[in-house]
Amino acid sequence: MSDKKPIFVTGIGTGIGKTIIAAVLVEKLRADYWKPVQSGDLQDSDSIKVKELVSNTKTRFFPETYRLTQPYSPHKSAALDGITIATESFVLPETQNDLIIEGAGGLMVPLNDSFLIIDLIKKSSAEVVLVSRNYLGSINHTLLSIFALKQYQIPVRGIIFNGARDIYSEDYILKSTGIPLLGHLPEFENLSSEIIREAGKYIEL
User: Fold this and answer.
1) Beta carbons within 10 angstroms of residue 134's beta carbon
2) What pTM did the predictor assign?
3) Is there a domain that residue 1 lies in?
4) Residue 35 annotated among the catalytic residues of the structure
5) Which of 4, 5, 28, 35 is flagged as catalytic?
6) In terms of Cα–Cα distance, which of 119, 139, 142 is closest to 131?
7) What residue numbers bound the domain in which 37 lies?
């Protein structure tokens, strides 16, 4: 592994834009990519999406540890597939490159009856890039996410706001938590590898 900690991209909820942010970070850093758990959409998975958006020739894409057929929370998807997600199955890929790990949903998404996404982050000895999006309730969701990360003593590299700006929400979150701002990513109508390359200028790591 690289001496650097892996970067775990997680969000304040589902549909926040983790996959887009992950693609931008992978392209910007020419890092490797790993999505440990994919629930549903196996023909158009997040790994496939990121691979289509990344154009550098250095990045390696590691296979998911679990590919679940149903589009639900991983613990439910696994149960419907007749399996139980085993925590010991999650082993960091061997690489000397930077590694971007993309989570599933938010921090408190269950992988089995006693293991959450936040536990997987802790197990991975990763630092977090938290993706937030401005909507009614996002302050609460963002602060709760940061509180949980602090409770678990997980280092937070910073926060990226994805989509429309709201300076009132963003200023409150940044001032009250002290979490570094890594950037703002605007809304993109049509994604392409060129747009993902250009988007790197919006983010400082």
Assistant:
1) 19
2) 0.96
3) no
4) yes
5) 35
6) 142
7) 7-202
